[in-house]
Amino acid sequence: MADINDFVWGPIMLALLVGTGVFLTVRLKFLPWRNLGYAIRMIFRQKKEHEGDISPFQSLMTALSATVGTGNIVGVATAMVLGGPGALVWMWISAAFGLSTKYGESVLAVKYRETNSVGEMAGGPMYAMKNGIKNKYIGRGLAAMFAFFVVVSSFGIGNMTQANSISAALATSFSIPSWLTGGVVAILALSVLLRGIRSIGKVSSVVVPSMAAFYFVVAVIVVVVNFAAVPAGVAEMFRMAFSFDSVAGGIGGGIVASMLTSMRWGVARGVFSNEAGLGSAPIAAAAAQTDHASRQGYVNMTGTFFDTMIVCMLTGLVIASSGALGTVDPETGKLVSGAQLTILAFSSVFGEYAKLIVSVALALFAFSTILGWEYYGEKALEYLVSNRKVIMSYRVLFSLVTFIGATTALEVVWNFSDTMNGLMAIPNLICLLWLNKDIADECFEFQKVVVEREKQGEDVDYPIDSEDLQI
Questions:
Q1: Stretch 11-17: mean pLDDT, rounded?
Q2: ∠29-298-115 over CA atoms, to 5°?
C-alpha cells in the first residue's frame, strides 16, 4: 500500500495538480491573482440573504477547518527536512496556481448545486460532473468515483489520523490517556455533527479564526525575536529551491536536497495542506448563501492563500529562523522532523512552553479538520445514497470512529485513506479541464458586471439589468 501511495502522490500526480492550476490561471487571464485583494474583502462583506445554508464566511471557515490542520505544523517541518528549506518556496509557488484551481472548483460547485430532500444545498465536484458534463455516462461515472473516494478518505485522513494527532499531542504534553482524549473528542464531535452543516458552520466560524489568530501571534513572536536570522534564512530557501544539487547552509547544515527534491516535497505538502485540486473544499462552497457562483469562488480561493501562504509560511519561517533545521536526534541519529522539529523551533523563544503551544495548536487544528471532513464525507455519501437514516447513521458512526483513531495506531488504514485522498484529484481534475469554459464564462461575466463596479465603490447585487450581461 505504501508503494501505491507513493505513486498516487508521486511526480505525475503533482505535475497534473500544478499543471491544471497553471492552465486555469492563464485561461482566466490571471484574474484570481489580480482579484485576490477583492476576494479577501468579500469574506467580511455582509450582503442580503441568498439561496444557501450558511454565510459565505461560514462556508470559507468550514473549508478552512478541513485544510488548516496537522499539515500546517507537521507537514511543513517534514517538507523542509526531506526537501530542504527550498521546499517552502515551492509550497508558495504551488499555492499561487492553486488559487485558480480552488476558484474554479468552487465556481462549478455553486453553479451546479442542487437542493436535497430536507431543503439543504447539495453540491461539489460530483454534482458538477453529473450536471455539467454532457456525456451522462462519463459524468455520472466520474461523480460516483469521486464520491466513493471522499467517503473513504473522510474516515482516514479526515478522522482517525486527526484524532490520533490530538491524543498523541495531549499525551506528550499533559500525559492524558488516549482513551480519555478519544472519548472527549467523540462526544464533542457528535454534539456538533448531529445538528448538521449549520452547526458545523457556526462552530468553525469561531474555532478556525481563534486558532489561526493564536498560532499567528505565537509564530510572529518567534520570527521577530529571531529576526536577525530571517534574511539569511529566506535567501537560503530561494538558493536551495532553484539549485540542482545543494547542501543547506546556516539554517540546516545536515540537509542535502536537489531542486527536484525540493519541488516534489514542497508541492506535495502544499497540495496536501490546502487541498487545491482535490475537490474537497468546493463541497463547503456549495452550501454558501451567495448571489453568484464566481463571488463564492473568490471567497473560497482565499482559503489557499491563508492556509499555505500565511500559516505554512509562518511555520517555515519559525523553523528557518530558529536554527533548529538540521538538528540530529542523539538517540536515533536521524534528523529531527515533524512535530518535534516544530516544537524545537518554538522552544528557541518559549522554552518548555513550546511543547504546550504546539500541542494546543495541533489539537485545535485537528479537531476542526474532523468537523470539516465529516461534512465532505456526508455530502459525498448523500450523493451515493439519498436515504436520510443512512446520513444520520454516518454522523454517529463518524463521531465514534474518532475514538478508534485516538486509541489505535493504524498505519495500513492511514496509507489506504491517504491513497484515496490522492485519487480524489483524478476525476476532479478531469472535471475542471472538461468544464474550463464554464469556469471562464462565469469568471468573465462576473468581472464585467460586478467586480469592476464594486472596485469603483458601487454596491452591486447579482442579477442586475439584462443589458449589462452582454459579455
A1: 83
A2: 120
Residue 327 is given by DSSP the state P
pLDDT interval class at 468 (50, 70, 90): very low
Count other C-beta atoms under 10 Å from residue 300's C-beta.
31
The neighbouring-strand residues paired with 257 are 246
> Looking up cell 476525476, which residue turns up?
427
**Count of Cβ atoms closer than 10 Å to residue 278 Cβ:** 30
Grid coordinates belonging to 112:
451546479
* 214 burial type by CB count under 10 A (0-12 exposed, 13-18 middle, 19+ buried): middle
CB-CB contact of 153 with 161 (8 Å)? no
Task: Flag whether pLDDT at 251 surpasses 60.
Answer: no
Domain boundaries, the chain: 2-469
Flag the least confident range among 6-15, 49-58, 231-240: 49-58
pLDDT tens for 408-462 read 766 666 667 667 777 888 999 999 999 999 999 999 999 988 888 887 777 766 6
**Residue 296 CB: number of other CB atoms within 10 A?**
30
CA distances from 407 to 356, 377, 411 (A): 21, 22, 13
Q: For strands 121-122 and 246-247, give the pairing.
A: unpaired
314 Cβ contact partners less than 8 Å away, ≥ 6 residues apart: 215, 216, 219, 220, 223
Q: Pseudo-torsion of CA 379, 375, 413, 275, nearest 10°?
A: 100
Q: Cβ(182)–Cβ(368) under 8 Å? A: no
Residue listed under C-alpha cell 487571464: 29
Closest by alpha carbon to 451, among 5, 7, 32?
32
Q: Which of the pair, 396 or 337, is modelled with greater confidence? A: 396
**Cα distances (angstroms) measured from residue 461 to each of 35, 37, 291, 313:** 18, 19, 7, 35
Q: Does the pLDDT of residue 145 top 60, yes or no?
A: yes
Q: Which residues contact 383 (CB under 8 A, 6 or more apart)?
A: 122, 124, 126, 127, 143, 147
- Does the pTM surpass 0.70? The reply is yes
Residue 460, classed as helix, strand or coil, is coil
Domain 2-469 class, CATH top level: mainly alpha
**Contact yes or no for 69/242 (Cβ under 8 A):** no
Single-letter amino acid code for the residue at 129: M
CA atoms within 13 A on the CB side of 63: 38
